[in-house]
Structures are given as C-alpha cells and as structure tokens.
Amino acid sequence: MTLPGCNAGRGSKTSTSRLFVTRLLATVALAGVSALAAGNVRPVMAQETTSRLGAARDFNIPAQPLASALNSFGRQSGLQVTLAASTSRGVTASAVRGSLTPQQALSQLLSGTGISFRITGDGTAVVGASPSAAATGGDVVTDGSTVLRPIQVHGTGTSGDGIGEVSITSEDLERTNPTNIADVFRDEPGIAVGSSLPASQKVYVHGVEETNLAVSIDGSRQNNKVFHHSATNLIDPSLLKAVDVDAGIAPADAGPGALAGAINYETKDVRDLLTEDGFGGSVTSSYNFNSHTLTTGASVYGMQDGFEMLGAFSFGRGDEFTAGNGDLVNGTATDFLSGLGKVAYEFDSGDRVELSHERVHDAAARPFRANVGFITGRPAWEPRVRDYRLDRQNTVFTYTDSTPEGWWDPKLVLAYSRNTVDTLGYACPGRGCTVPVTYPTIGETDSFNGRFENKFDVGMGSITAGVDFYNDSVNLDAESVALAFSDSAREKASNVGIYAQARLEPWERTRLSFGGRADHQWFTGVDDSDWSNSGLSGNISGEYDITDFLTAKAGYAHSWGGIPLAESFIMNPAWTYGDGPEPVSADNYLIGLEAKYAGFSVEGSLFRTDIEDARIARYSPAATGGLIARDLESRGFEIGAGYAWLDGYIKVKYAHIDVDVDGAPADSDTGNYLAAPVGDIITITGAHTFEDWGLTIGGDIEIAPEYDRVAANTPAYKAYEVVNIFAEYKPASLSHFTFRADVKNLFDETYAERATYGQEFGTVTPLYEAGRTFLLTAKATF
C-alpha cells in the first residue's frame, strides 16, 4: 500500500534505495529460514490460488440439469468453469447445500454421474468425461482431459444475486498488486476513484459517491462522513481478500442506506490461507522508484483443533511523487501503518465465533485541502500543506454455524467502527491580517451496529431474514481561545430495521432475488432537536438463461435511507432545522444481456439511479445550511467483451455515465458526498501465465476520452490514456517466493483521474497522478 504521508526526517534517495536492497535481501533470508523451520512442523503452503480453493463457501444449488447447475456453481464459487457441451446433455446434477470448499461442492454436484473434473492452479474447473473418473465417483483427477466445444461459465461473486454485481476476488487483487483503493477498482470503468492520494480518495459507483451506498468492512457498517477533503474509507488493500459491489440494486440484507447500491470489503481469514491445521506466514517488501517509497508487510497465522489466529501489519515511508510533467506533487509523501488481527474458535458442535480488529493510521503533511493540488487566489497566509492525522478502525464480533441444517443457518454480527481526522484550523481575522491563528480541529464519525439473521433452506433456494440496527454519530471538536469561538457540534442517528431476502431458482434456467425491509430512524440535530421517520425498501431482480450461453437480466430497487448525517467539518452549532430534514430515498433500474461460450464473453447493461432529497449540508447560513437537499440522476450503460483460456484472459469494458444534479450536469464540487462527472471510460486488461516458466505477464489500459457535458463557460474534461504493465515470477525451485515488477503509467501521462476534484475549475490545480513509476515487489511465504 502506498499511502502518502509526511516528509519529516526522510533520508536521501540513495540511502532509501540502499535500505530497500537491504530489506529485500532480509525478506528473502527470513523467508528461507522460516521455510526450513516450517519443514519440521507440518509445513503448509500458502499460495493465494490454492488458499482460495481450500476456503469454505456457502453453496445452495438444487438438483437440476448439469449445465444450469454448473452456472450456479460458477456464480457461488467464484470459479471459472469449462464444460464439454456433449458431456452435459441428459445429465442431472445432484443438489449441493452447506458450507463446503469448491472442490467438495463440485464433487458432490457430480456425484453418481461418472463425470470427472479437475481444478487448475489458476482457479478454473475443467469438467469432462474420463474413464478414470467413472470409477472414482467424480473425484479430482490430476491428469489432463480433452475438452470439446467448451462452454465458459464465470462466477461473478459470492452473494449469488448477480444483478449489477461486481466481484473482485483474491486472484484479481493478486494480479493488480494494488497500492491504494484506486488500484482495487482499476479494471472496472463503472467505478471511479477520485484523487491520487489514498488519504483523500473516494469511490464513485456509476458516478454516485460511496456515502450513498451501504458500505461495510467484514460486515460492519461504515459511517465515514468526516471531511469532504479527506478519504471516506481509508483502506490498506494488502489486507483485503475480496470486494463485492452491488451497483444500483442491492439486496435487503445489504443493510440500511443502500440508496445507490452496496460495497462490502472483506479482509483475509485464516481459512483463506490454510487448508488444514498448521501455521504459516508471509513477508512482503516493495519499492517505488518514483517516490522512493519502501513498503513492508508481514503476517503470521495458524489453525489448530478449532482455534484460529491471524496477525498482519504493514507500514510505509517515502518521498513525494513526481507527476508526468516532471513536477513534484506537494503533500504526497508516504507515512502509514496498518494492521489486522483475528482470533476464532469453532466448537465441535459447529458453532463458530470470531473477533477481528482492523486499523489504518496515516500521519501526514497533505495539501491544505487534501484532495486539491492548489487553488490560486487564496490568501498568502494560507499554507500549501498542513498536518493531517487520519485514523480508521473497525472491530467485529461474528457468530455463525459452520454446519447449518435446513432451516437453521444463523449469523450474529456486533461491530464498532470509527473514523477520525485530526488537523489544524486556520483563521486570520481582521483586515490586513498576515499571521493566522491556528487551533486544533478534530472530526470524528462512529457507528455501533449489528444484525442477527437466519438463512432458511426452502429447497429451490433460500430466504434470509433478520433484524439490524445502527447507532451513528458525527462530532466536531473545534475551539479557539484566541478567537473566542467554538464550532464544536454533534449530530446523531439511530435506526432499527427488519428485512427478508429470497434467492430462488423456481424453474429451470430461472433465478430470482427479491426482498424488502422496513426501517425506523431517530435523528438528533446539533440543537438537540429530535426527529423520527419510517420507510420501506424493496427490490426484485432476475436472470433467465435464454439458451445455454445467453442470459437476460433485469432488476428494480426502491431504497429508503432516512436522514443522512452531515459532515463533521462543516457542522454549524447555530443550525436550526425548521420542519426537519427530509428523508432521502432512491430508485434504481437495470436491464442487460450476457453471453458466454467457448471462452468468449459479451455483456451489456443499461442502468439508472434517481435519488431524491439527498442532503448536502453547508456551514452557512446557519438557518438553512443544515437543510440543503438535492435531486440526483445517474444514467448510462456498460458493455464488455472478453476471452479466457486456461492460462490467461483478455477483457475490454466500456462505461458511459451521465450524472445530473437538480437537472444540471454534475461537477466535481458536487462530488463532496453526492456525485462526480464520469463520462466515458474504457478499460482493457489481460494476462497470460507461462506455467513451465512460472512467469505471468499482463497489464491494463485506461482510456478516458474528452468529456464536454459540462456547465456553460466550463472547459471540457481532458482526455487521457494510461498504460500499466507487470511481470510476476514464481520460480519452481523456490516455491515459497514471488518476485514482481510493475511499470505504472508507462508513457508518463500527465493527468488527473476523471473523478478528481477541481479539474474543470480554472483556479484549481488538481492532484495529478504519479508519472512513470517502477515498482519492485518480493513476497515470501512459509
């Protein structure tokens, strides 16, 4: 992770380079010693692909024709499935239900059919007839098999909803080697990330800012509306296992406030890294030659007799980076520390409890407005950078039953999350003032939340029903004795909801998901005025396999979000609320087609999101600033095509997104908790693995044509094209090691990502992305 931070005390570039070489050699040596030591105590390989194949998932696949069953298996496992068309004719697959590894689930699904399968190292399940398998009841075979006229079925996530879902797997994360949250979504043109600094990055799904989505980390609600110049959810991607995004249409069990969909971040678990009792660990070092940033991460994990433990941390230090134009970008140095700890125990009864704590801390000198390079015309006393301290933490307790039976598959989650921004406020009162007064300013948001739900097996699928709650607050602590003023203020909101979501396959080739929720919210303003409101939400979506390779999908969702809390740093203790803020609500629509055959895939969808009474609070005037609301409309389409083979793939995706606010084109100023202009984005990604050499090469291209749908007298958003390439080597003789080289922004483009603040305003110098960047990474597992 490359989280920019303060410059204080950094050494010369030469000494930093030497430090990297030293630490890289230490990484290799440490891993070698660890690997030898592990050989005496039941060594466990922790390669990412093998780990995923050994991880248990929830499967619910009714007995049905084999082709349809494998479609369901692909979606629920996240694996790519290659099936010989002649093999599937007239074959009925067995039902599969419960928490199983993909290998166990596929073996159960093919039980009694005499059909074999093998799962390759890159996560592809190859299903086809083999005489050797008939005798073993469909167990895995390690030899090759001939596949005729294969049908390609690619799982798109773990929730099984499918409609509008974007699933980023551990394999995707390993391939992209993300250093910040923008890299996580690099392949998805419908998901934009503004700012080149992790400390100020925000995610936009179909142009809608993430605080209008239900965002969770390990099932814990995130209430992160602190400062519009800072990040909404600062995350270390090295700790992530997967990310699921429901773009627009979210199920009822995604939680309250899913106005434009949902984002769920999942951190790594022990069972993703180990397949049996034992222990393991990893050490990673990377060096960024543009900013001379050294990042180091380490983890250790173990599993024994039902007890599980994982500990991981990473830290980074480095200089400011250089943009494509050769200019140093102020306030972009690296200074961060993050960590993840998990303990779990599974009883003989199957009852499982887990406690996790994840935290990221960024102590940094940033641009004065952390998502803006510079604004001309500002007072001379305003500094170019100021200190920021960002701290986000997330604690989650989870209870599940790993051996569910029919109508009993419970889940209990209790969680607490907090996000803090600590910086200095500046004021220079009086005419002719040249020396500003500074005072500490601390903004904080937090959420105590939880849910209890049960998944009922109803034969043709499942119904999840439950109750959830949250108790959120937003606080500002800003006082100056010298100025004799206080801006300290607080808003609170609590909510209780009940929900149910059905996921069914009632007929052959047909999958339905529908549900609803009822919420009641209590809101308390800065003046201690209280308001309560209730609302209903509902969704329905479906997929129908027109043929064995062509699927139609459509969906609709209405979401009620209550009264959103205001941002910490703009709260005004003098606000009055009149008749009260209006609850926000949204309607989402999606329709699309998807075709997959013989490794080829083509897909397309049309979408629209309408949000009414979105709260856009402003500091002043005091009488109405807390009540400002806007109506938003996001609409557009996404299309994509690709081809996958056993050792690689190539994909092309194109998204066109228009966003209006109160009937006018959105600008990046409305991106502060509402929306951002996107326009047209094209992504091209591909990779190929040379198994005999242990070498994988790949890359991606992002193309953003000029976008001129802007307000009058406003310049068009500039076009840019960015190319990233990588090579990864896993030597057969050193199976514990991985070496990787990345070149980001290969052609040294000078650009700001489309969702970055201020690039259409003549007085703003936006935060440019880093120019050509060479990144070397070494990872050792034991």
Would you write up a description of this structure?
The chain has a 22-stranded antiparallel barrel. A five-stranded mixed β-sheet has the order 10-16-17-14-15. Strands 7-8-4-9 form a four-stranded mixed β-sheet. The chain contains eight helices and 43 strands. A hairpin with a 5-residue loop joins strand 30 and strand 31 (530-545). With 782 residues, the chain is mostly beta strands.
Main sheet attributes: strand count, strand direction, barrel closure: 22 strands, antiparallel, barrel
Category by helix and strand content: mainly beta
Shape: globular
Cα-based radius of gyration, to the nearest Å: 26 Å
Strand content: over 45%
Helix content: under 10%
- Low-confidence stretches are 2-14, 27-52, 129-161
Mean pLDDT reading: 86
Secondary structure: elements and pairs:
Elements: E1 4-5, H1 13-38, H2 48-54, E2 57-61, E3 64-65, H3 66-77, E4 80-84, H4 85-88, E5 92-93, E6 96-100, H5 102-109, E7 115-119, E8 124-129, H6 131-134, E9 150-154, E10 165-168, H7 170-176, H8 181-184, E11 191-194, E12 202-205, E13 208-209, E14 214-217, E15 220-221, E16 240-247, E17 261-267, E18 278-288, E19 293-304, E20 307-318, E21 333-346, E22 351-367, E23 374-375, E24 385-401, E25 410-427, E26 437-457, E27 461-480, E28 485-486, E29 489-504, E30 510-524, E31 530-545, E32 550-562, E33 584-597, E34 600-615, E35 629-645, E36 648-661, E37 664-665, E38 679-690, E39 695-704, E40 720-729, E41 737-744, E42 764-765, E43 773-781
Parallel strand pairs: 4-8, 14-17
Antiparallel strand pairs: 1-21, 2-6, 3-5, 4-9, 7-8, 10-16, 11-12, 12-13, 14-15, 16-17, 18-19, 18-43, 19-20, 20-21, 21-22, 22-24, 23-42, 24-25, 25-26, 26-27, 27-28, 27-29, 29-30, 30-31, 31-32, 32-33, 33-34, 34-35, 35-36, 36-37, 36-38, 38-39, 39-40, 40-41, 41-43
